[in-house]
Amino acid sequence: MQKDFKKWSTTKQLIHNDLPRIFFKEREVWFSYIGENIGFEQDGRGDEFLRPFVVIKKFNNQVAWVLPLTKNQKEGIYYYQFKLNNSISTVILSQLKLIDTKRLKYKLGDIPEDDFIKLKTKIRQFLA
Questions:
Q1: Domain made up of 5-127: CATH architecture
Q2: Cα(120)–Cα(57) distance, rounded to whole angstroms?
Q3: Which of 32, 77, 99, 120 is least surrounded, with the fewest CB atoms within 10 Å of its CB?
Q4: Distance (Å, whole) CA 78 – CA 92
Q5: What is the C-alpha to C-alpha distance for residues 69 and 110, in angstroms, rounded to an integer?
Q6: Interstrand relation of 28-33 and 79-84 (parallel, antiparallel or unpaired)
Q7: What's residue 119's pLDDT?
Q8: Measured between alpha carbons, how far is 75 from 67 in angstroms, rounded to an integer?
Q9: Alpha-carbon span 66 to 51, nearest angstrom
């Protein structure tokens, strides 16, 4: 599959130069500009290179740790499933990423608090 790195480069410059940072909190799920990435890294989709992410840790108003979501139902030590807006979403634990909050486009919802606690426990186990 051919990737359009030139289009992503143009989009990335607009995000960096023109977009404001958005207020956000931990536990929220956002569509974010993630871009066109290398190899098996998760890519954004569509013209805006968007992908859903759950905010794991807010460090300040500029950066946060996030994990990408997929609609594909996957199981195992590298994944965590939860219900969001009446559908099952799967968190990809192996793709933990630090992002600038200028990448946030719009909020999809919140991961339920009990699922967020379980997810954070699974992340700790995964990293240990």
A1: Roll (2.30)
A2: 10
A3: 77
A4: 6
A5: 13
A6: unpaired
A7: 96
A8: 16
A9: 11
